[in-house]
Amino acid sequence: MASVVAILDLKGKPLIQRSYRDDVSPSNLERFLPLVLELEEEGNQVTPCFSSQGINFMHIRHNNVYLVAMSKRNTNAAEVIVFLHRLVQVLVEYFKELEEESIRDNFVIIYELLDEMMDFGYPQTTESKILQEYITQDAYKLTVAPTAPITVTNAVSWRSEGIRYRKNEVFLDVIESVNLLVNSNGAVVRSEILGSVKMKCYLSGMPELRLGLNDKAMFESTGRTPHGKAVEMEDVKFHQCVRLSRFESDRTISFIPPDGEFELMSYRLSTPVKPLIWVEAAVESHKGSRVEYMVKVKAQFKRRSTANNVEIYVPVSDDADTPKFRASTGSVQYAPDKSAFVWKIKQLGGGREFLMRAHFGLPSVKNAEDSERRPPITVKFEIPYFTVSGIQVRYLKIVEKSGYQALPWVRYITQHGDDYSLRTALEKGSAPIVPM
Amino acid sequence: MNRAAPKKGENYELRADLNSEYRDKRKDAIKRVIANMTVGKDVSGLFPDVLKNMQTEDIEQKKLVYLYLMNYAKTQPELVILAVNTFVRDTDDPNPLVRALAIRTMGCLRADKIIDYLADPLQKCLRDENPYVRKTAALCVAKLYEMKPELVIDNGFLEQLQDLVSDANPMVVANAVTALSDIHVAATSEPSTSGEPQPGVFNINTHILSKLLIALNECTEWGRVSILTALSRYKAQDDKESEHICERVVPQFQHANASVVLAAVKVIMIHMRHVHRPDLVKQLVRKMAPPLVTLLSAPPEVQWVALRNISLLLQKRPDILQNEMRVFFCKYNDPSYVKVEKLDIMIKLAGDNNVDSLLSELKEYASEVDVDFVRKSIKAIGQCAIKLDSSADRCVNVLLELIGTRVSYVVQEAVVVMKDIFRKYPSTYEGVIPTLCANLEELDEPEAKASLIWIIGEYANKIDNAAELLEVFVNTFVEESYAVQLQTLSAVVKLFLKKPDSAQGLVQKVLNTATKDCDSPDVRDRAYIYWRLLSTDPAAAKAVVLAHRPPITLPRTTVPPIVLEELIGDISSLASVYHKPAETFIGKGRLGADALQRKAAEQDDEVSAQKALQEIAAGQQAENLLDFDDVPADDDRPTGLAATSFTSTPAAANLISGKSTNPLDDLVSIFGSASMEVPQQPPRANGLGGLSSPIAADPFARLGGGASRTPGLGSGVTSPVPTQSRQQQPQEDLLGLF
Questions:
Q1: Are residues A329 and A403 in the same domain?
Q2: 10-residue block means of pLDDT along chain A (436 residues)?
Q3: Which residues cross the membrane (chain A) (predicted)?
Q4: Residue A10 near chain B (CB below 8 Å)
Q5: Which of A255, A322, A345, B400 could lock A310 by a disulfide, CB 3.0 to 4.6 Å apart?
Q6: Based on the domain organization, do A174 and A26 belong to the same domain?
Q7: Residues of A in contact with B640 (CB under 8 A)
Q8: How far apart are CA A304 and CA A329, in angstroms?
Q9: What ipTM was predicted for this assembly?
């Protein structure tokens, strides 16, 4: 529960605010930034929630704005923080970008959204697709005034009735993001696969869908044996349209989908993953004159797959200058804003291996205080038609009372997660890296 | 509105436009009024003109006028009355959107004049055929209750809300539950005159329970949160029912919304107290782990809330995430508040099977650039050593490697940590001392200096040039901080008692300086005590100063058991995030001993209040005596700092009333400098506490100082002293001082 929700600029000035309850005066918002600065000055952590003089501030940061909620009660912090993130998500879907400028330009609609998304401090409708049905930026374009938001309170609150398509189609995207951390000795310290099944649904009426995966737990619970490999998902999260109790009892994924695009489910596996793209760098630094890198990349997946848009970020110290690069494939750029150089390879075939050399000048005078810390090498990539976990869509059954035939399309892709890093940039002469 | 026209002129223009005959012009003017309102300009003078535009077919315009009204209704109550008619008419509009909007806004106006007109339309809207209107009306009842509870009761709105709990539409059910819970909180938190707790307006019975369990599977994510919160308040009739609730709630772990997952965890943790089938408990705990781990893929702020809660859950059920330590490894880009919590949890999960990978991670962190995080990582290495005896050797090796980096803050923190390791494993790592002493000159932080001085004093007989090393500090005595002065003083006395011939002059000098030139009463008092001890009875001095100290341990919990129990019941709330009971930060002042006693009585566990209190006393035992002078400081501290600890008041109260389980223990801990056992030190905000600084290593002076400032507490402290003096006769001398 939140008494006030506001968006502040980086100077702490409210850009827009909405008071939901009287117990907290909006004027307390002025205290927010000074409190943050005070905490920082005293060397304390600025945590997302903190309390001062009986008022609890809960906040998140997005681009150049703070989203702040205040409450006096022992409120549900998780709910408020998740709500603030949802607010960001909705506003981004409305305005593409959420930053100071777009807030100033759209204050009328933001007021409307704040009014609809929360009432008396309790979150209400936060699905942007539903909101867009009756809160629009160009109200004047509507010939009829927006009426009953049926979907808001439908038993099926995420789908309107009477949807019609000439061609009934469903597109499924199975996207797996790999997060992993390789230590300087070449060992994988941590790895996880975050999977997500995204759906684009162009179906008429109120269709009932059932999705079958090669889910190990499902085979176990039904006693059947899978053809081929079954995947053990550690944790599964569903869109609210999926019947959770049904999944709990027999692992069936059954649902009436929202119209259009949405994320049906996400899952997590923490099975050890071999680094799909292996990178190591030998660094030879001559203090006060230059530093040289030799970077090796290896695609450690089957030959029939190809990684696209591979970007390898190798960190260099901030004071490096006059970069020179030589790569056996792709292109290399210096990215001083990221304190790194980037090696871009458009296509990297499975099993292939390439080398790259980089040379930087270093200033002759160096601040002795500068620590030698080297952030890990990070990699971005995507591999189409391939899932690391081996997950597969076995079937997607679509049943609608009108009895139409619908076509499901499935696509697989594996990509980097938000943390695919290797601590394998090593000073030449130190212990050699032994790849797995 | 970037025109620099004078304010009056601008409002004048707006007024003209608001009264324009053209619809577009009027609407545009309203938008400009709202824009001015948004940037904080006063446009309240235009109230009547804006109001004229309220009757319109254009919903957007209506919303804007409503918005304006909400903002200024409080300052212009007599004008709001003009709007009432339109509001009432709008609640009859054929468009449900308008009906709902009208009733929602009326509830937000908060002007006494309009409230009296609210009852009739609200009555109508609660029975509206459209669920969107009903769900909005349900919350409006809670709004009305906040302003005029008697209106809600007189009109029978509470009964109507109870009926809505059985509504066919899950959204309506959810909002009815939300409204009832909100009213319940408001009603029960009011101070009652009789001293009896208020009866509450939303008491869930088995009938409502089954309704809630059904609606849970159908309603929106936020509705689920509110239903789950209501379920957590329900008192199950028997174990069977608890099991049933757990089984019905478990599927919610699969929800994509993190707050639904945490709300479900809370319900399970509460009702699991009454689940006695070991297989079911095991199954529930097993099912809880994966969703908790998944929360770590959420945005950082959500992660942080989850981590704070996981930290509590681990204190209650250390087995929950047994094999999952790796997922808590810090990512390079994690915000520092997330990293700090992860460190804390990694230490909680550290065991013989994973300590190697943990140490290699911690060593990696110790080379990052964020100084604060580096220090905490090094501290974590120390905590690891203290927690796992078998890992101590490896931890010490890592620390030595870090000292070898010669990065100033790394070395200093490592020295502080080494001191703690010495306190846990006395005389085990003496070989390290020369390395530490070699860095003596580089230390410039008081805590690091004090730690090294403590080590030198402790092992004075093993260090050949101890006198020489200490002399440096004696020479600069007056310039040092008090913590360093106290340690220097104690170390020199220790040295003297161990090697009387080499430190005769030094001890004389330090006692002289400390008593004459030092402006800290603590330091002076301690010096006087030493002086008197040494001059009257050197044997007694030896017994006191060189007394055997119990080794320190890493506390398993950072909050007392009974508070932990309360916080577990508050999972996902601010209390669980701050690790503090709600009373400490929602403005009703401190949690007193009587409040705790009442709380204990409320606990449905069989534990009697008395027993519970003793438990607290035991849990907080060490927090009590030495921290008296910190209590006021704790008061001023912003409560949001991560892991500031539970206030020390109840423990102190316990001690004074003589309820402490074992006064002797307390005393031993005073004299034997076992303040090291302190589970946490309130003044340390970093939450990694547990290892207290050596500042309190000889608490005599502090005790003396505390007593002189707060005589009441002082007398409470000294009362059990005779017990001690029976053990150590020569200390009678000491008592004279008090």
A1: yes
A2: 95 93 92 94 91 94 95 95 96 91 90 94 89 70 50 66 89 95 89 94 93 88 79 89 88 91 92 91 85 93 94 90 92 91 95 94 68 81 93 92 90 94 79 50
A3: none
A4: no
A5: A345
A6: no
A7: 39, 47, 49-52, 56-57
A8: 19
A9: 0.86
